[in-house]
Each structure stands twice: as C-alpha cells, then as structure tokens.
Amino acid sequence: MNRLLLNPLLALFLPIASTAAQGAFKPDKLPETWPEAGKTKKAAKKPGATKDTAALRKLLGDASVTLVRAGKLFLPGKLGKTPRIVDGKKSWLAYRAGGVVGLFAAPDQPLEIAANEVKAKMLDFSDKPDSFAGPGLCDADSRWFVASDAGDLSVGAKGQLEIWQEGWKDLVLKSGITTVFVPAGGAVGTSGPGVLVKLDPEKGATQLGRPGASYYQLERLATRSTNLTRGAVVKSLRKALEGAKNYKKADEKWKKDFEAYQKKRKDFLAHYKKNPLKAGEEVKAAPARPTRRGRGRGRIPRTKEELEKMLERVPPAMRDRIRKQMEARMKAAADKAKADAAKAPKKTGDKAKPDDKKKAPPRPKYPKKPKHDRTKEALLRILDGKTVLRIEAHRAAEIKAVTKLALEFKLPRIVLVGATEAFKAADELRKAGALVVITPQTLPRQGMDTLEEHFAANAAKLAAAGVPVAFGSRGKEQGAMLSLYAARSVAHGMPEAQALQALTQNAIDAAGTSKVDTGMVVFSANPLSPTAHVLCLIRGSQVVRLQGDK
Amino acid sequence: MRIALALLLLSSALAAQGDTLVLRGARVFTGQGDFQKGLVVIVKDGKIAAIGRDIPVPQGAKEVDCKDKWITPGFVDAMTALGLTSMNENEESNEVTPQVRAINAIDPEAQNFKRAVAGGVTTAYIMPGQMNVFGGLGVVYKTAGKSRVVREDAGVRMTLGQMPGSGNRSFRGFGGSPTSIYYRRPNNRMGTIWEVRRAFYDAMDVRETNLGPQLEPTAAQRVLISALDRKMKVRTTARHGQDIRTALRLAEEFGIAVILDDATEAYKTLDYVVAAGVPVVAGPPSVQAGFDGSTPHLDTLALLARAGVEVAISTAQRPDALPLVREAGFAVRGGMDRAAALAAVTSVPAKILGVDARVGSLDKGKDADIVLWSRHPLSPYSRAVRVWVDGVPVTKPSR
Amino acid sequence: MVSRRIAFGLVVGGALALLAQSATAQNAAPNGLLIRAGKAWVAPGQALVRASLLVKNGKIVDAVARPTNDAKETFLDQADSVRDFGKNAVLTAGFVDVHTHAGSDGELAEPVESFTPELRASRAYDAWASAWKRITARGVTSAVLAPDDRNLAGGIAAFVDPGLAAGSDADNYFKMSLTGAALNRERRPTSLMGAADYLRERATELQNLAPAKMTPAQRALAAVIGGGQSVGIACSTVREIHAALDATTTYQLRTFLIHADEAEECLARIVGAKVPVVLRPLGLQSSRKQLRLPGVLQKAGVAFAFAGENDQDSGLPGLQTSLAIAVRQGITAADALASVTTRPAQIAGQSERVGTLFTGRDADILVWSGEPWDLRSRLLAVIRNGTILHENKQ
Asked: What pLDDT band is residue B21 in, cutting at 50, 70 and 90?
C-alpha cells in the first residue's frame, strides 16, 4: 500500500502556528459545550493521541462527511449553552446529513494516510479571511407557502401549504436561509401545529414530517382588545391545559384498566384452550354490570336500606305514600326476576361438571376507552414536552400571566411571539424558560411601552437578561433581511455569537423540534454584515457552489 | 428552449427594422371583399411596400412562409377601455368633462393590451367611461409597438340613458356629506339630455357672442364647439331604442356628427338609423345581457349591415366580451355576411375612427399591421399565429 | 508641509484636490474643532484613512489623512479642542432626507382643494418637534419637509436644518402627487385623466398673464413651468409614472419622481426621461418589488435616493436600514451611501452645502462605530454645523 507521509490534502490538518494545542484533535458532539479550537484542553480530558488519529482516520474515510474551513466558523450551542465563533484557520467543521458532526482542531502531528483512503469532501475557504461558515439560517416565523387565499391556518399548517410555491430560491441563495418555520394561527385562541420547511436549492422545498410548535394567540393586533378580554383568553388557555391534564389522567386510568383486561383475557383464553367447549356448552358471560336502575322517580331500590336512604331525600309528608309505592314496585320486580329465572331453559351438561363450570373464568369486558380528542392530544404533546406552545402576546401583563401558566403546568418550554413589551418581563421569561420570537409585530402599538429602535433593542435587552431570542419575518422575501435585524441587535449590545444563535438554533427550537439539519452555509462575510453573500451551500451530501453572485 | 425562442424573436425583431419582409403563400383579406389566393405582401420600414400578384421581390428580402395560412389586416377595436383601470374610468367631479383625455390615464404596459394583441387586435380606440354625460376624449392607440398613438382626440364621448345619472344623488346629505359633489343633476334619462343640450347651448353662446379674451371658451367648450363645427365626432352611447332616437334628434338639432356606440336596440329603430345615415359601433353580439336594461338581439348586426349602415363590431368596454375575432364569428352566426363581418373589425372601424389612411386594410403605404391566422379567422378553431405591428413581430411565433 | 502630508497619508480618489485647497485655510485663529477617526468617507467612494477633520464656524475647513508617525501634528495649531473617536470610528456626511413629513401630524395637506401650490411647508415646520430630535439622532442632518401626497399640487417643500432652532427653512421643490391619495372622490379631480386636465387648465390660465396679475398659486406654478424650480411628483403605479413623465415633457418640468413603486415595469421610459427617483425607505415590511427596485435602478443607470417619508418607527434606525438593505440587495456600498447623502443633496439643490465632507461644506458629520451600511455599527456622535448634537457612549 502506498502510504504517504504528507498528503497535500492533509497538510491542511497541520497546525498553522506552533502554539497550537498539543494533540488537539478532539471530535466533539453537538450540542454539548464546544471546546474552543486551537486552545489547549485540560490534560485530564485530553484523549489519547492514538484515539484521535483513529477518529480522524474514520472521519476522513467517510464519504458522507464534508469538512469545511473558512475565515471564521460558527457553532451554535443548544439552548442555554454558549454559542461560539472560532477562528477558522485552526479548525475544521465536520458535517454530514443530519447535522453538524463536530468541530475538529487541526492535529499537530502530520497524519499518515493513503490518498485513496480520503473520501470525505473538504472545502477550504480559509484563503478568504472574511469568509464565514456555519449552519444554515432559519426564519422563525415565515409566511412562505401559505396560499394567498388561505386566510387563517387555524387548523394547523400541515397539509395547508402550497409547498410548490416558487421564488424562495432567491431568498435562500442571497441570505443563507435554509429552513423556514410556517406557524399556524390566525384567530384568537388555539391553532394547530406549524410546519418546518426545508429549502434546498436543488431538491426544492420539503415539509418536515414532525408537527411543529402549536400556536396560541392571545390578542389580535388588528382588532381592539381590553385587559378583560385578554385576561379571559389567558383563562381559556388555562382551562384548555387543565382539560388536557384531566384527559391524560383518564387516559392513564384506561391504560391501567386495559392492562388488567389483557391479563384476564389471557387467563380466559388459557382456560378454554385447556377445557374446550363441548356441543351446546356456552362461555361464561362476564359478570353483568350493575344494571341501570333508572333515575329519580322511576328508580327502584333493591334493598330496604337503600329505600330508607332514598326516602331521606323526600319531603316527610310524602314519605309514607312513596314507601308504599316503592315496596309494591320492589315486590313486583322481585316476582318478575323469580319468574324469569324459572322460565330460563335448563342448560345441558350442567349436571355433568358443575365444579368445572364454577372454575371457568368469565369472559372479560373490554374497558371503556375515553373519547378520543384531537385537540387535547395536541395539547398533551405540549404538556409532555414533545413540542412547544407558541403564544402571541404583547403586553407585559399577559406575558407574565403566560409565564405563570408555564410554571404551573411545568411546561418545559414556551415560545412567546411578538412580545412587544417582553423587555419589561425579562426576569419572568427567563425563569419560565421562555424563548421569544421577535417579529415585525413587535413594533410599537398604541398603549404599549416601546424602546428606541424597538425591534433590535427589545431583542438585545432580552438576550442580556438571559432570555433566548429568535427572529421571524412574518413575510416571505422579507426573511432575507432578518440577519440585518439581528445585526442591529448587536449594535444594542447583543454578542455576535448570540445574534447568530438567534438566527440558527434558537429559531429551530422555537419551531418545537429540537434537532433539525439546516445544512451548512459558507458566507463571503459574517452573515450579520450587509455585504455577506452565500458562497456555498451544503445539504446532505450535496455541495452547491454559488459563484459570480457578486 | 425558451432562450432559443427569445433569440428567434429578437433576431426577427432586428430583421424587421432594416430588412424587407415577404409574406407569400397565404390567403389574404385586404380589408374588403373575400380572401384571395396568390397575393404577396411586401413589408418595408414598417409599411406595406407592395401587395399584389407576381410583383417583383426586392433582393435580400426575408421570406416568411405563410403556406396554408390566412392573412388579415390587424383588427381594429373601435370601443375599448384597454389600459384604463376600469370601464368606468371617469372624471366624476363634473357631469360635463368633454376635455379630459383618456390618454392621460393609459397604462401602456397593461396586461389587457397583451391579450388584445394575442387575439389579433393591433389598433384600439380607448375612451373614458360612461358615468358622465360628456366623458372625454378618446384616442386611437396601437396595442403594441414603439409609437403607440395613432390619433389623439379622435372623438368625444357622450352617454345617453341612465348611466350618467346613476352615481348622482337626489338627496342633499343623504348618505354623504351635504356638500357632496354628487348632489347634482342629472339623476335620470331626461336630465341627461337636459345636460347635453345645456352644454351645447352654452358652447354656442360662447362661440357666437365672442366676448373677447376675458371670456374665452373653456377647454370643455372648445371641444364642444369643435363638435358643433363637425370637426370632432361625437361618440354617442345609446342603448335603448328611445336613446338611439334621442341621439339622432340631437344630431339633427345641433348639426353634430354622431357615431352611435353600442346601439343595443338598433333593431327597434332600424329605419331611423338608416335614414340618418350615421355609422354604428356595435357592442359584442355574444353578450346576452344589455347594459342599462337594454335587450340585445343576435341579429342586430346582420340587420344593420344588410340595411347598408356602416357598422363596426367592438367589444364595447365589456369585461364579459370575447376576443374581437370571436365576436365577429358571433355576428356571422347572427346572419352577417362573412366578408362584411371581417370588414366590420378592420376597414370599417378604421374608417369610422378616421384612421383608414394608416390601418384597417392592406394597401401600399399603410402600416404593416398584419395578422397571420392558422385558419379562416372566423373559424372557431382559428388562432393568431403571428402578429406584426409596424412590420415588427409582437407575439412569440407559434405553430 | 502639504507635500509631507501627501507622502504620509493614504489618499483615495479626489481627496488630492482637497489637500491642495487645505493650504489656504491655515492662517485662521485657533478656534477650530479637530475631529479624528479611523476613516472618513469624504464622499461616497472617496475614503481618507486616519482622517483628521478641522471644523471652524460650522464649516469644514479641511480634511486630511494623518501621517502615521506623528498623529498629533496635523492641525493642532488651529484647533482649540480635539475629539478623537478612535481608530475604528468612521466619519460620513450627515444624511439628507429629501422627502419627509416628520413632525407635522398630518398637517401637510390642504385637502379641501387639490391645487394649492401657494402653500409653503416651511410655515408648518416646527423645529422643536420631538420627531426632529429622533430623526437627527438617527443621522439625518438636513431634510426637506414636503407637503404630503393628498393634493395634486400640495405646495412648496422646505429645506430645513433639523436640530437647529435657528436653522434654514428655505423653500425647496414644488410637490405634486398623482397617486390615488390625491384623487379624492369628493372634489376635483377624481381621476388621473381629470388630474391631467386640471393641470392643463391651470397652465393654460398662465398664458398671456402678466406676472403682476398672477395669484400666489399661479406664481408658484409659473416658477416651475419651463424648468425653473424643480418638481417632485409622487407616483406609484405604471400609469401614474407615465402620467408624471407626460407632464414633465408637456410643461418642460425639472422633475424627480417620488415612490415610483412600479418603476421596474416602465424602466425604459424613466431611463429615457433621465429623471432621478426618490424611493420609499426599506424595512422588514417592504415588498419584494420594493426590495428589488434599488438594484434594478442602479443597473439601468437611474439615480435614486432614499427618503424617510413619514419616518414611522419601523423599530430600526431609519435611513441606515435602507442603506444596509440596499447593500444586502447587491448595491455597491458607495452607491448606497450616495443614495442617502450626495444624491438627495443634489435633488434638493443643496450639494454645495451638504452631502459630502469636502472643504467649505457644512460641518454635518456622523461618527459611526463601523461602516455606516453595517447595522452593527452605531452612531457615536452627530455633529451639526460643528457642534455635537447627540453623543452615544461606546
């Protein structure tokens, strides 16, 4: 085998400066905290050199992997974790279909590997110092694919979208947005789940199968609302969640009953397998459920005690009369039962094995299932933390009420959309683990407090208070401007890494599905800069280079 | 494929400017009579250089194979609202606005121009709407090409019947501000005629008294005076029988040159129309519901043509009208002669509009507005294969 | 001295010419303000690196690139105060907003009549309105307060100095509107045809009329016919743009178009007419068409500028947002900067005063923390006629 010491490709894996980490090749898994490339890791955590080489070999030998290097690399952190922007000269970002594999610092030892063993794609943009690589951006509130005559998608966005709509390619190519979330919603109250749509310049748009975040609107800005009406809407949301909780309880009870039923059925079947039925013989019926004895005046008590109890509720003056009536009826019923028993045909074989018959288990009854309720099922997904609740609320009072609900029902995450006055409730939002999607509806309205340059300032204040934010355009092409709006938040003090986090991972989280492959994008400059354009898009194993854009 | 088409279009457009085109092999309708075989049309510099049999073909001329195809002049639609926002485009601040010009509100890029071209219409008369007694001046306008205006101020619109009164109020302050400009006459048919007569009499006063520069005629009066002097045609919209008779009476009273527009119920007043000798721009025969409560008949056009009235077929600003060529087909269904129906969408409207020196027929020196049809145009299956305006192809070539 | 500066300074483009002029201004008394920054965009596309600007009496006396070895030398003898904004700071000329209705609460139309050219927006200019403070804080140092779109001829716009109570309120262009807003169903004209007719009627009245006998409205109209005073015509749709350009040729107006939302559909006509266009500001709510338009106009060679219009709070910093979005849409940075500085200044006829940082211009200077078209950059200071009006902490 022709082994090379310094394959030209692998020269890229050599550290640029001698100060680089010793044996710093560290495969790491998203979405844990990212080691900053090029820095020495703690000795205790440092994996052995052989292991590194093996991992690197494995990676390089994998044809589905794409390794990207650019002037700067961006690594989103999972919610709560710090996102990072690292110098791309000393590291590579590995990606394969499904998401980013990890960040790899260059090893300080030359790697011995055969040229034909290198199967991974390697894209090196580090000759362009401004270039910038990271996951594709996501518009957290898009109106793409919504039919112009659809009105409100109040039953959910899935199946309602015109996925064949065109014109978004311009958007993708220009701004690096590879995923958009189309929420349901319209009327005040609950709406169905939204849909995440992947945009691929070659394969077209595809809807993600999993249902996204459900939508709940507290207020419609187009119509007039008062404190009281909005309060009532919060109350109805509470009631809906309560209902879902009860539904869950009933469901759990049914599950228990069903288990018991299955056990009984097993015994029942086992018995008759052992003792097959003979001709004319019948299966022992299930014990009759207590018969419905009517209500009110028509009800016939079965025992004397029952009769007395019943008479307590009757006005004393009427008691004697009713007692007489009831006793007559009880007697008639008893007589009838006796007559029925006498009339019933005698079963053959009764005499043969009376003991066996007694031992035979009765046919088990299927437990009654609670009525299936799709609305409550959807809300249950929220209570179970399978998806998130997106709530459009603008005023601080409502935002605080919603955060209280989130704590009360132990919702793992809620997403506030719009949230004009969110900066006034930042603490509550942080405590409730809320994520805020800033949309153009965040703009000042009458009777709401606003900040100078509200859109950006609100986002920056929330981020400073530790509340994760995302940006949504509420439009189509307008999504291309989102990164500029994030840039303005930077001017208001939001760290750049967090602004990028807002455009990537936070937007995906706001969609209610945690891990989504948004592909990789290489920009000509930091996407927050207006001069940035997309050099290259990586989706799955596809690499689409965009040249001559500028 | 699309690029190839575009290139083809581009190259033919370039060729059309300098080169000479020879259209050979088609059956040709020149504007009168019937289709003739063997006629060759030669186009040069946007004009028809020659038409005839066995004529010399200049060197370097570009041949267009028209075998088994049919050629007509570009159609002329003598009553449209193409390029205007609606068929009721009016200056409503006054009842008498003969001086406003439709050309000021035309969107030359409007989609309905493109549809008209695709249907073989290359020239259209565009006029203001019907909500005023005097609606304003119309313009003869090409539907495509570079220089679109054929004749400005080609006629002034006068509307009889209920329509001009329909927007006005008879109650002061009822459902509007007490000072509303819509609190005014007319509110009915009689009032409309009163407004017409008052406007004409005022104009006559100004013309005859000649009070000097201090009391010069207004722009509106200047238009009406030129109508009284028979320099300006009065395009009179008259749909009901009595409105047609009123139009003819007014023509007699003021000596104005009237052209009857729409004339839905002309079958009722045929004798009067024939006797007056006025031309008629009829509405679309396919439309079954007349405006203003009038009752259309399919055979009106045939009756008028047979009686010797100069009659053109138009889409009459109706949004529910079919393409003009189909309306001509309906006229034939109503009993009109084929040749007469074709003339009624080409040479006759061109003559009524006063632009017959340029469009409406294929003759030496006239504009090279030519439509190549896949079949006899009046066949329901016919399609405009190619359309030239001023010798330049304006549609994508199709088979 | 001058030659030494050239030897040290990195001079881009036309800055050379400036340096030649700078020698004349050196003998003045030392009462100037010296402003230092990492870079100055003297004009769009002309940068001075390590720039020093000397400001005196509200004017820019000189602008040069500093020598690298001894930064303290330049102009120090002439300045009694120095402001150094650091090496990352970027200077540009103050923004010029050529079409705004700010601070007037809908007072900028007299809608009973559609033809009111005698009205003057300067008389509705409230220099103390809080809106102007906000606008200046966003970098607009000169503005044209224009009558709004509700009248066919709304009046005369006013060139104002926001932030200076005793500033200019001079008459500027003649504002016209052919948009739907000007066509009122309860007065003349109700249609575009009627608007053309109305204009024709007013223009006809002027014929053979001695100037002494003219009404104020007629005088205002007479001043624009034949190409005197410039005319801003608000128009949105294709037919309105055509109507505006028809009026331009008929009356030989010196026109610029305002809004022109459908300019792309009739681009050839606009190119042929050689008129500049003042666009609506860009923001997250702009339509696809509006977003495309700057790029389309630049490609066709049509000069365009951005206006603040109503300066409604879009949640973002006014004209800077338009600048950034235009750059994102593919406009060169220099062209985008020109569309908020030099071009609006030209349209307002004030390019001798504002829009650039050349010698002798008003000292309207914006100090940015980075490039002005990058929304991450903040305005560190707004200098108006040599005084610092607003200052933000870094």
From this structure: very high
Closest CB to B92 among C190, C238, C266: C190
Q: Are C372 and C90 in contact (CB under 8 A)?
A: yes
Q: Cα–Cα distance between C305 and C298 in angstroms, integer?
A: 11
CA distance A540 to chain C (A): 27
Residue A549, pLDDT above cutoff 50: no
Note the ipTM here.
0.86
Of 2.30.40.10, 2.40.320.10, 3.40.30.10, 3.40.50.880, the CATH number of B2-74+361-393 is: 2.30.40.10
CA C116 to chain centre: 24
- 3-state SS, residue B119: coil
Domain A138-246+387-518 superfamily per CATH: Metal-dependent hydrolases (3.20.20.140)
Q: What is the reported pLDDT for A207? A: 87
What is residue A89's DSSP assignment?
G
Test mutation, C197, C213, C241, C250, chain B, max B CBs within 10 A: C197
Half-sphere exposure of B185 (CA within 13 A, CB side): 10
pLDDT band, residue A188 (cuts 50/70/90):
low
Residue among C374, C378, C392, C394 with most chain A CBs within 10 A, to mutate: C374
Check if the beta carbon of residue C201 is closer than 8 Å to that of residue B93: no
pLDDT of residue A276: 83
- Compare CB distances from C374 to A485, A529, A550 and report the shortest one's residue: A529
C-beta of residue A135 within 8 angstroms of C-beta of residue A504: yes
Tell me the pLDDT of chain C averaged across its residues. 86
pLDDT digits (tens, 9 = 90+) for C240-268: 999 999 999 999 999 999 999 999 999 99
> Do residues C245 and C143 both lie within one domain?
yes
- The Cα–Cα gap between A31 and A44 comes to 21
Is B92's CB within 8 Å of C191's CB?
Answer: yes
CATH code, domain carrying C261: 3.20.20.140
Alpha carbon of C189: minimum distance to chain B alpha carbons (Å): 6
What residue ranges do the domains of chain B occupy? 2-74+361-393, 75-353
The order of strands in the sheet holding B149-159 is: B75-80, B121-126, B134-142, B149-159, B234-238, B258-262, B280-282, B311-313
> Is C352 domain-assigned?
no
Statement to judge: residues C147 and C238 lie in one domain: yes
Half-sphere CA count of A203, side-chain side, radius 13 A? 15
Lowest mean pLDDT among A358-367, B95-104, B157-166, C288-297: A358-367
The residue ranges of DSSP E strands in A368-509, in sequence order, are 389-393, 414-418, 434-438, 469-471
Nearest-by-CA chain C residue for A445: C313
Take residue A390 and report the two structure tokens written for it: 């997106």
Task: For residue B378, name the pLDDT band (cuts at 50, 70, 90).
Answer: very high
Residues of the domain holding C57? 2-93+357-391
Strands A434-438, A414-418: pairing kind? parallel
List of residues 6+ apart from C66 with CB closer than 8 A: C8, C9, C36, C50, C51, C52, C74
Q: In sequence order, which residues have a C-beta less than 8 Å from that of residue A402 and are 6 or more positions away?
A: A218, A234, A237, A391, A393, A414, A416, A432, A434
Averaged pLDDT score across all residues of chain B: 90
Which residues in C lie closer than 8 A to residue B181 (C-beta atoms)? Answer: 186-188
Q: Is residue B382 packed enough to be buried (19+ CB in 10 Å), middle (13-18) or exposed (0-12)?
A: middle
- With H, G, I as helix, E, B as strand and everything else as coil, classify residue C380: strand
Best of C112, C193, C235 to disrupt the B interface (most B CBs within 10 Å) is C193
**Per-residue pLDDT, A49:** 39
CA distance B340 to B301: 10
